[in-house]
Write a structure and sequence with these properties.
Layout lengths: L5 E7 L2 E7 L1 H13 L4 H11 L5 H18 L5 H4 L6
Antiparallel strand pairs: 1-2
Helix pairs in contact: 1-3
């Protein structure tokens, strides 16, 4: 990783919030949203709704990781796989 976390504002269900992610995660998050044909706020709201007690920035990182892992397996990501433990 090359950079320190950068804070960006998102709108989740009509409310503004700030999320700090490393530049590489912001780039991956934008690419994932674009690949799915969705806006960044829309994808963030989906992740937020499914995150439980996990922090939003961590939930976004884990979601990105799960999507990349699914890509490596040749699968399309789903919420169920994104929330399972890595060793499952």
């Amino acid at each position: 990783m090359t950079g320190r976390p950068q804070k960006h504002s998102l709108t989740l269900r009509g409310h503004r919030t700030s999320v700090s992610l490393e530049p590489e995660f912001w780039a991956a998050f934008r690419a994932l949203a674009a690949r799915r044909g969705r806006g960044l706020n829309d994808l963030a709201a989906e992740i937020d709704a499914a995150r439980g007690d996990q922090g939003l920035a961590s939930a976004i990182r884990v979601h990105i990781l799960a999507a990349l892992q699914d890509d490596l397996r040749g699968l399309e990501p789903t919420d169920e796989r994104a929330n399972r433990p890595a060793d499952a």
